[in-house]
Design goal:
Elements lengths: L1 H19 L5 H5 L9 H46 L3 H21 L2 H27 L1
Helix pairs in contact: 1-3, 3-4, 3-5, 4-5
Length: 139
């Protein structure tokens, strides 16, 4: 049963995070952004792919990574609320740094195939950290 809990929690996290950013307001558009900030539609393409990979990794590795995976899902889901809904980019930056740390721990627990599926998430989190830090330091 535990094998199915993580994929379900990934979908719940995706929904919860999406709710926070459905109404991006003028606050976000008024911010100075990092030079490599992509157009908004890129996020709509990348995140569903990353969440699908998280579902697979969670399903295949639930016995090895259950607790840290739940923690990373919480940190992932709360980031959107911290940043978009509550306009706390500095707190969101600390959150994403913790998120990276937990995911590095998870990555080290995975076998080769799962590492290949989890690597894009870590790479994207690093890029998102750059974007978040850019907003913190440029505003």
């Amino acid at each position: 049963m535990q094998k199915f809990i993580l994929p379900i929690l990934v979908l719940v996290t995706f929904a919860a995070g999406s709710l926070s950013s459905t109404q991006i307001d003028s606050w976000y558009f008024s911010l100075n952004k990092a030079p490599l900030n992509p157009p908004g539609y890129v996020f709509g393409i990348v995140w569903p792919i990353l969440y699908l990979l998280m579902v697979i990794v969670g399903y295949l590795n639930s016995n090895k990574i259950f607790k840290p995976f739940v923690i990373q899902l919480f940190l992932n889901g709360i980031w959107s609320w911290l940043f978009f809904a509550w306009h706390l980019p500095l707190v969101a930056l600390f959150d994403i740094l913790l998120l990276i740390g937990v995911n590095v721990y998870i990555f080290r627990k995975l076998g080769t195939g799962s590492k290949l599926m989890h690597a894009p998430y870590l790479i994207w989190l690093s890029f998102a950290t750059y974007l978040n830090a850019g907003i913190v330091f440029l505003n």
